[in-house]
Amino acid sequence: MGEAPAFIVDDLQNGNGFPISNGFGLKSKAGETTTIIGDKTYLIAGSDESIGVKIYDKSTGKWTIPTVLGKEPKPCKGHSAVAINEDRILVIKKGATPDDCIWFLEVDTQYVREQKTVETEIVAWSKGVIGNAQKPVVISGPSGVGKGTLISLLMKEFPSMFGFSVSHTTRKPRDMEKDGVHYHFTERSVMEKEIKDGKFLEFASVHGNLYGTSIEAVEVVADDGKRCILDIDVQGARSVRASSLEAIFIFICPPSMGQLEERLRARGTETEEQILKRLCNAKAEIEQGTSSGIFDHILYNDKLDECYKTLKKLLGLDGSTVANSQTVVIPAPRGIDLPVDHSVSKIDNKILINCGTPGSGEASKNLIVLDVSSLKEGAPGRTRGLDVYTVYSFSDGLNGINKLS
């Protein structure tokens, strides 16, 4: 990494500086940290309104303000920062809620490299989450094939295990529709910018309005300890497959076009013209779904009970996993409860957070160890795979360790 150390941990209170190529030292002000990775110094400055980023490039001797992607952290009372490796910086917010205190600033991850241009530097924020999430399930199939019925059966039998993401749309809400419940209603200009910034897994224009699934919407379901189900068409599945999201892709096929036509006509909800259009679209979808390589599994819904059993087996719910309608899924803790006053250091892949001195008479949380050796995913979604241990000290000198994840 050249002359600069692999990382520095900057205490907000002591104002320690760091060397720059011209020999001068830059001192951190209150609310700022400086972290050196290679020839670049990343200054993260917090205020009551936002958290900003500046980059000093030793090779050019210039400061730049990068384009910042991802969902930015809320303002906080201060923060600590430490480089995990050459591609990201761990930021621990002071005075934040437990589920909002761990963040990562990505500076050279694959996602950042894909967004980089010659004209500007790129960095990206990602919230850190303890533990891992189960892969979302993408289910596609032509109209009338029964995928909605299969999903309803899953939701009924395992209500605490599965959840739906809330889609975005630029159309106006109808009567009784609530923002954030039925859809995330948004302005077209806002959604177009977020699509450009890579915040959407898939989107489509329907009757002049945009509809789409954001990465954040899927992450929220996982944060609640549930497995997200995405009921989307083949084109949407293709977009999700091309994204960074790791998912299980399942395509539901009718036993034959003749039986599909019978099911559509039996519904009695469409005109002859609409039925013929749906059949034409279904034929094209089936050809794409079975030959495109998008889907990991193809199920033929001849007998609903048999198809449902196969679906459960694919999802590990065929008896090898104990689950029923009374099953309660308890989400893993998403963060850590830190006092405002703490210090941070790093040893290998362990971040040591010193929370103070032992109390008197009872166990006192003294040290939190954050293991970052198994990080997964990242911007523009969450960074998962964190392991957290708390080390307790007792007045008699004994120690205890508790793993949170």
Question: Can you put this structure into words, describing what you see?
Answer:
Mean pLDDT is 83; it is low at 1-28, 321-330 and 358-363. The radius of gyration is 25 Å and the shape is elongated. It has two domains: 17-131 and 333-403, no CATH class; 137-314, Rossmann fold. Strands 7, 8, 9, 10, 11, 21, 22, 23, 24, 25 and 26 form an eleven-stranded mixed beta sheet that branches. Strands 13-18-12-19-20 form a five-stranded parallel beta sheet, with helices on both faces. A four-stranded antiparallel beta sheet has the order 3-4-5-6, with no helix packed on it. β8 and β9 (88-93) form a beta hairpin. The chain is an alpha/beta fold and 405 residues long. The chain contains eight helices and 26 strands.
Classify the oligomer: single chain
Largest sheet: 11 strands, mixed
> Which stretches are poorly predicted, pLDDT < 50 over at least 5 residues?
1-28, 321-330, 358-363
Content of β-strand: 25-35%
Keywords:
five-stranded parallel beta sheet; disordered N terminus; alpha/beta; 405 residues; 8 helices
